[in-house]
Amino acid sequence: MNEKARLVFTGHLHPDAFVEFARHRARRLDIVLQIASADDEAVNVTVEGPVDLVDAFEMACSLGPYDCLVLDVVRTTA
Amino acid sequence: MNTGNIWQPVCLSHSIEAGTSAGARLSGEDLVVWRDNSGVAHVWEDRCPHRGMRLSFGFVRGDHIACLYHGWQYDTGGQCQYIPAHPDLEVPKTIKVPVYLTKERAGMIWTTLAADAEPLSVPIDETGTIPVQSLYVDCSADVAIAVLEGMTLAPFSAGRDAETTISAVTPSLYAVSAGHDRLLIGIQTLTAQRTALHVVISGLPEVYEGGGQAHFLSWALDLRFRIENPSKKMFAAPARTVAEAL
Q: Which residues fall within 8 angstroms of residue B181, CB to CB, at 6 or more apart?
């Protein structure tokens, strides 16, 4: 079953590093990713794909690249 | 010697039994060498795409290898086919382990890191091979080859005074012959300063198994000693040491 979800990652982020990390994970998981906005405090994305893979994307990005600290993730239906 | 893009051995064939895996290294790249239950050998990048766990720590079941960490299963093409935590998921084709060309020749498993490499030029040895030993030395492949080319070989079969001839079959395979005996030495560049030499006897098992292997193991240990101790002239492994090593 496919899901289209909006994910907002907040914390202490380097937007370029985080976005590159998110794109890599989305490619690996073969899900659709759109970056809505990205700054030092929040990255806002929309993803679409099988629910399990969207879950995996959320989990991966909640860990983030080594130079980013994700403090919270909000997931809503897009 | 150019390293990553040429065919090189990564282990002796007999080192990898069906249904097992092991780690190897070629030109600084970590590899998993595994053999499926039908006996076919595979050489891949030693990294699960999920969490980066070494697949060489994984386990082989039939024609799949599974990661030790979360059990992700990969088929012989490197494609992930099953994720235990998501049994109903159709795994995306993007979850795939990089695989390398793999052949078995001269009693060794060969690979190249170049996807567009020329076909392996090591000839099929129709008389068969008997494994002797893999040697690991802390020097470049060029240094190891230079020492190898200065070695003499006392034959096992007959004619102790037979002349030794050494030739390069390929850049990564040397033949050492004396009398009726012939050794093949596969050269594996682990890193710029670490090299493996895989030694096999080219011949019939009924002639060389046991005594022949012990005889040439002594020669192989001498080779390793000379590589590691370039300033010393002589080394003779005591027969008892060789027997204990067997």
A: B153, B155, B156, B157, B201, B203, B212, B216
Average pLDDT over residues A59-77: 94
What gap in Å lies between CA B228 and CA B232, rounded to an integer? 9
Q: Name the residue among B180, B177, B172, B218 with its Cα closest to residue B198.
A: B172
ipTM above 0.90, yes or no: no
DSSP state of B171: T
Alpha-carbon distance of B36 to B21, in angstroms, equals 9
Give CA–CA dist B181/B164, Å, rounded. 10
Tokens for A66, please give them: 């080594």
- How far does B90 lie from chain A, in Å, by closest CA? 9
B92 touching A, CB under 8 A? yes
**pLDDT average, residue stretch A35-58:** 95
Residues in chain B closer than 8 A to A30 (CB atoms) = 92-95
Does B2 contact chain A (CB < 8 Å)? no
pLDDT (tens digit, 9 = 90+) per residue, B60-98?
999 999 999 999 999 999 999 999 998 989 999 999 999
Other beta carbons less than 10 A from residue B144's beta carbon: 27
Chain B residues within 8 A of A28 when measuring between CB atoms: 49, 94-95
B94 and A53 within 8 Å at the Cβ level: the answer is no
pLDDT less than 50: residues of chain B:
239
Whole-prediction pTM: 0.85
**Minimal Cα–Cα distance from A62 to chain B, Å?**
14
Q: 């997931």: which residue's tokens? A: A75
Decide if A52 touches B, using CB distance below 8 A.
Answer: yes
**B232 CB near a chain A CB, below 8 Å?**
no
* Angstrom distance (rounded) from CA B109 to CA B43: 9
What is the rounded CA–CA span in Å between residue B2 and residue A36?
A: 47
A50 touches chain B (CB under 8 A): yes
Burial class (CB in 10 A: 0-12, 13-18, 19+), B99: middle
